[in-house]
Design brief:
The chain is built from nine helices and nine strands. Helix 2 crosses helix 3. The mean pLDDT is about 95. It is about 30% helix and about 15% strand. It has a seven-stranded mixed beta sheet with strand order 1-3-2-4-5-8-9, with helices on both faces. A two-stranded antiparallel sheet has the order 6-7. The chain is α/β, with parallel strands linked by helices.
Length: about 230
């Protein structure tokens, strides 16, 4: 499936940005221009079921295949957040960016006794602007406005790729040089995985004080964490 894309910059280097569930390319409103200022042509997608991209069947493999159908191979860097990190990791061997950054990737969360609830994600479609602002006190007002807009354009059926099962997609090894970027207050279950990730060749960095959407909670910290990778 060909995805809708948004671009910033016309530099000689290429950066790819892949957002998380319930969001779309507008979430990168500060990251895209910042990378463009560093000499990148930046391409951000709307995953299927998000933003202006088509709807369809929703599985991790479909999300990944769409990236391969839409994005150029051999980019200088690819960044995926949450669901976007999961999709990128499943597409990375085909996209072959020079470097990959997985920001709070949705590789592992929940367990057989308390799996992620897709209904809880789907119900977020109807949350109010006030609730978004209260739940994300570190966000700028424009980020709250973007969240309202992206929720309006989001197909909540994408939540059901979870299917009541725990996520179990932690890669055995990095296919390309890879950074895993974690929030100090991560929503994901990585405590037992961090040392294994490091041992298998991933670099792992934490952004102090940030929550799951690091690039909106602490933009400066997000960019600082990318030192040496962009």
């Amino acid at each position: 499936m060909q995805l809708h894309t948004r671009e910033w910059g016309t530099g000689d280097r290429t950066a790819l940005l892949v957002h998380g569930i319930m969001s779309d390319s507008r979430t990168w409103r500060r990251v895209g221009p910042a990378l463009a200022e560093r000499g990148y042509r930046v391409i951000a997608v709307d995953l299927r079921g998000h933003g202006r991209s088509p709807r369809g069947e929703y599985t991790p493999r479909h999300f990944a295949d769409d990236l391969v159908d839409t994005l150029p191979a051999g980019a200088d860097v690819a960044v995926g957040h949450s669901l976007g990190g999961l999709a990128l990791s499943l597409a990375v061997e085909r996209l072959r960016p020079l470097r990959a950054v997985y920001s709070e990737p949705a590789w592992s969360s929940g367990d057989d006794e308390s799996p992620l609830d897709p209904e809880a994600f789907a119900s977020a479609k109807n949350i109010t602007r006030e609730h978004i602002a209260q739940s994300n006190p570190l966000w700028e007002d424009q980020d709250v406005d973007v969240e309202v807009a992206t929720l309006a354009d989001w197909d909540a059926d994408t939540s059901y790729f979870l299917d009541g099962r725990p996520l179990a997609f932690v890669p055995d090894r990095p296919s390309v040089p890879s950074l895993v970027q974690l929030a100090e207050s991560s929503l994901l279950e990585y405590a037992a995985e961090v040392e294994r990730l490091r041992a298998s060749g991933f670099e792992v960095r934490s952004v102090t004080g940030a929550g799951h959407t690091i690039h909106r909670d602490d933009f400066a910290g997000f960019m600082k964490s990318l030192d040496g990778w962009i």
